[in-house]
Amino acid sequence: MVHSNNSLPKEKHIQTTAITNVSDYIGRVNEYIKARNQGNSTFVYRGEPDCYPLPCRPNIFRKGVMDGNPFFEKSLFDTMRQNKLSGEKRYLDNAIDAQHGEFPSRLLDVSYNCLTALYFAVTPYYHNKEDSMDDKDGMVFVFFVDEIFSPSAQNTNDNYDAIINRDKPWYQNKTLFEKNHKFIDHAKLNNRIIAQQGAFILFPGDEPESLPEYMSYGILIPREAKLQIRRDLKQLFGIHTGSIYPEIINLVEELSSKSQKLNTEDFNCQNELNHAIRHLDKELSYYLHYAIQQKRAGTENPEQILMYIEHVADSYRRGLLEFIGDIREVPPKEEAPVSSETLKEVVSRYNALIRQFSDAARQYGLGEFSGDSLQIQLK
Length: 379
What we know:
By secondary structure, this protein is mainly alpha-helical. The protein folds into two domains: 266 residues, no CATH class; 112 residues. Helix content is 44%, strand content 9%. It has twelve helices and six strands. The strands form two sheets. Strands 1-3-6 form a three-stranded antiparallel β-sheet. Strands 2-5-4 form a three-stranded antiparallel β-sheet. The chain is globular, with a radius of gyration of 22 Å. The two termini are 22 Å apart.
């Protein structure tokens, strides 16, 4: 039986201590990086001036503009081009222009600079007074990324075009592929992106599927510390509204490092299925280590954690079953987006991951994981 649980705590691995200044904050970021212990990850950050019930959501999902209008984005981009608000021909470039022109977008802003994210956690959007949210705690999210998509690459643009044009039935409105958040490297298209050392996380679905727990950590910024942190950022680092324009240097070393992790796979159904299975593998690996740590520390009930993990794994199971059902409804005269052999291989990999997790849960004395009920049997 698969149980549900809303969430696990965002603070993991490290004992919580108060953040009162920039030095405390940098220390916490370093602790998270050391706790993650993965030297090949890229670290990016996002700051929000309030502890929102649903954090890290692109603004297109908060404004309700897509309700009943699946081609809203296409119409928006065409109108922007017509009015010369975007001179670019690719929809992804239009989306980046829209994002920084205050139009709705499915791109989530993040930054390579942890201090830039801290600025956004203690300062509301510039239309508001700097201290207008000083009565609310802020949050900084630290994201660990091990796969990068280039905004100029064909696969990234094919993916975005499929979202906007809605011309690939195998991809559209599939709950499995809504999990395929993709980190898009920064494109130095305008001063704001340069100033914020910005990049994006793409949310591909019509519903904002939450970013997976393994991908991020949260740092609470207490409301009483906001004023002092803003002063520190301005006096010590020159970071304040209108003045964060860092000089672009060392691009050769930076781009060489990123190229080793750059995803250049074609955008197609098989690769999207593989992408989803890789996400499941990372989620299960992350939760296994988390459950083992909590059992050793005696701070959380391992069975409660397993119930939550069953909920996560079941969302992949249901997504795969939905996809399989759609594939089987493809008329005989039409070409299916993937072969039956590929589908069997994907299901086999999914089942193997579930079995491996079940075995590991028993091995480490975490309890019984409902792996049998999560298996998929192809008929």
